[in-house]
Amino acid sequence: DALVLPIATQFNPQLVIVSAGFDAAAGDKVGNFSLSPEGFAHMSRRLGSLAAGRTVYALEGGYKPAMVAKCVSACVRAHPECIANRGAARRQEAQAMQIVRRRQDHH
Q: Which is more confident, 1 or 74?
């Protein structure tokens, strides 16, 4: 809030692209931080205040599949205007988990 948002607001972007790595999530041995899904959701809401909410998230990190799914789900739920209903968020969490597992199987 104190550093990034004032600069980004002054820049006045038309689109925000987020490299959404979740390796800072609690329990991820690679990132070795302890950010909660709610913490990621808070950052997502703050970024959503830029560019009239036009924000694109590219999943790029996180090595604990269950936590990645929870973090992705929390970020999606942080933008209720983008969700038709809460059941959709649960389905998205399950889909995110499947995608993460498939990607891990390839590596």
A: 74
Looking up tokens 């550093």 gives 3
Cα–Cα distance between 67 and 80 in angstroms, integer? 21
Residue with tokens 């041995």: 29
CB 64 within 8 A of CB 27: yes
The percent of the chain in helix, strand and coil, each rounded to the nearest 5, is 55, 15, 30
**CA–CA distance from 69 to each of 8, 33, 39, 53, 93 (Å)?**
28, 17, 14, 22, 5
Q: How confident is the model at residue 95 (pLDDT cuts 50, 70, 90)?
A: confident
41 CB-near residues (< 8 Å, 6+ apart):
74, 75, 77, 78
Tokens at 13, concatenated:
């972007």
How confident is the model over 19-74, as pLDDT tens digits? 999 999 999 999 999 999 999 999 999 999 999 988 999 999 899 989 999 999 99
